[in-house]
Amino acid sequence: MRIDIATLFPEMCEAVLSTSIIGRARRAGFVEMYCHNIRDYTLDKHQRVDSAPYGGGNGMIMQADPIFRCFEHVCEEACSKPYVIYMSPQGAVLNQQMAVDFAENYEHLFIICGHYEGVDERIIEEIVDREVSIGDYVITGGELGALVLADCVARLCDGVLSEDVCFEDESHFSGLLEYPQYTRPQVWHEKAVPEVLLSGNHKLISDWRHAEAVRRTAEKRPDMIQKNEDKNR
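RESULT FIELD:
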């Protein structure tokens, strides 16, 4: 998979995407990620990419043309049109199923990071396939959302994690929260690891983990239990 991020702060994005699991996956060639500075695509000699909104109002609006030129460059470089996502508080809220859909059905994502008071509506109409939000709140720019989306999708790609079970047992993938996890020492602050996990009986351990996942989900996110029940009716 290839993921391109159009941003005013490529160094911020690179710092995150070059570390840990995603950084290793990039270096190993399991996923391609590129961060593009939108300012590099403006025709303004001062590299300005924003202007005051027509009709008045607070703040500045990112211009359509530099974003479009960045998009055109990526299309030419990749020899194909990517699926375009605009990070926006007005978008559908990102969840695990959306990430799975992106990972399974698209080979190339182009993510636009808005800033200031947003982007010119015409760039959304011209090239954006989907608006995505990471939650019902507003942050100062789209970079944090783009990084969350890129990480969430990339870790589902072949080779990024050691095996599929690494994410298939995680919270939200199966519609349940993940079961409790323990490691050494066996007793810490007088709290012992559940005996079943020391039994070596894989069937008992699997049953215990599923029961704990159901219990934890019902306790912390009863809405997920209801959603699963509605889906199975």
